[in-house]
Write a structure and sequence with these properties.
Blueprint: E1 3-7, E2 10-13, E3 18-25, E4 34-39, E5 46-51, E6 57-59, E7 67-72, E8 77-82, E9 91-97, E10 113-114, E11 118-123
Parallel strand pairs: 2-11
Antiparallel strand pairs: 1-3, 3-8, 4-5, 4-9, 5-6, 7-8, 9-10, 9-11
């Protein structure tokens, strides 16, 4: 399995921005599906954004227009740019990857490789 390590979390005020990074080691993840998930305390895990091997992205309605997922294959790094942060965005954010290239099926693909997570806290 590929090892994923997140960084970039922290505490910000409402309206602020953060950029999360997820660095992969071991096997390369391209063109596998990559995604960012988040889980707030007492809530179920939510898939925030996904990106497939062709660079196509999808976002949860709750973050659409505010978050941007991207990747730098040369650096084996996945990013999540988060703008206009709200207190509702407070959660543990984790990156994840599939074992295989699912192409356009990334929204329903199984994500089997996970990072340890990085905490994002947004205060009002």
């Amino acid at each position: 399995q590929v090892q994923l390590v997140e960084s970039g979390g922290g505490s910000v005020q409402s309206g602020g921005s953060l950029r999360l990074s997820c660095t992969a080691s071991g096997y390369t993840y391209s063109p596998y599906c990559m995604a960012w998930f988040r889980q707030a305390t007492g809530k179920e895990r939510e898939r925030v954004a996904i990106i497939d091997g062709d660079g196509r992205t999808r976002y949860a309605d709750s973050v659409k227009g505010r978050f941007t997922i991207s990747q730098d294959n040369a650096k084996n790094t996945l990013y999540l740019q988060m703008n206009s942060l709200k207190p509702e965005d407070t959660a543990m954010y984790s990156c994840a990857a599939t074992d295989y290239d699912y192409g356009g099926s990334c929204p329903v693909a199984p994500y089997t490789n996970w990072g340890q997570g990085t905490q994002v806290t947004v205060s009002s």
